[in-house]
Design a protein that fits this description.
- By secondary structure, this protein is of the alpha+beta class.
- Strands 1, 2, 3 and 4 form a four-stranded antiparallel β-sheet that branches.
- A hairpin with a 2-residue loop joins strand 3 and strand 4.
- The protein is rod-shaped, with a radius of gyration of 68 Å.
Length: 200
């Protein structure tokens, strides 16, 4: 008796469950729309099924699927090599000190001897002392001598020679002729002019 009651109760429960399952709307449609083992590729044959629109993990616009977990962070391009210039001021080489020479400066004073000239009374030769561009002294190295020539040569020497003579005063060979000693005066002028040409 108890077994018969359990059998009837179990049969009623299974019948109720079957009625509920068949009676729920869309149940059969859901079962029919379940995907098969191989999804249908709506695109042309030969294409990648994963690239079809609506495939999981793809962009609806057809873009390449991206994964937030495997995305590499964008790296900026390596900066170009730059050479840093110092912002300080330019260093300039200090001017070197002037060289000092131990050599003694050459004397600007020099002696210049003119050519000698012979006249009927004797031989005449003149030397001048030059400092810079100026005659500072005149000396007759040789003048006629003997007899009256000594007197005339003395007059020429007194007029032309020395630091205060006519040669230093005029600074040239245009001298006044000594009276009574024309030949000696002319020979003196010729020797003086040759010395001036050598000096200047």
């Amino acid at each position: 008796m108890r077994r018969a009651l359990l059998a009837i109760t179990g049969l009623a429960a299974s019948t109720t469950a079957l009625v509920v399952f068949k009676g729920s709307p869309g149940t059969s449609q859901v079962a029919q729309n379940l995907p098969t083992a191989q999804p249908v590729n709506p695109s042309a044959p030969g294409t990648d099924p994963g690239a079809a629109a609506g495939a999981p993990g793809t962009d609806p616009a057809g873009a390449t699927p991206t994964s937030s977990g495997s995305a590499k962070p964008s790296t900026s391009p390596k900066p170009g090599k730059t050479t840093a210039r110092p912002s300080g001021t330019r260093t300039t080489k200090a001017p070197s000190a002037p060289r000092t020479t131990t050599k003694a400066p050459q004397s600007t004073t020099r002696r210049v001897t003119g050519n000698g000239f012979e006249n009927e009374y004797g031989y005449v030769q003149v030397q001048i002392v030059v400092s810079g561009n100026r005659i500072v002294e005149a000396v007759a190295l040789s003048l006629p001598s003997g007899g009256e020539s000594d007197i005339h040569s003395g007059d020429v020497r007194n007029r032309y020679d020395g630091r205060g003579g006519e040669v230093v005063q005029k600074q040239n060979g245009n001298l006044n002729t000594v009276s009574g000693a024309t030949e000696t005066s002319n020979s003196y002028k010729q020797s003086l002019r040759s010395a001036i040409e050598q000096a200047f």
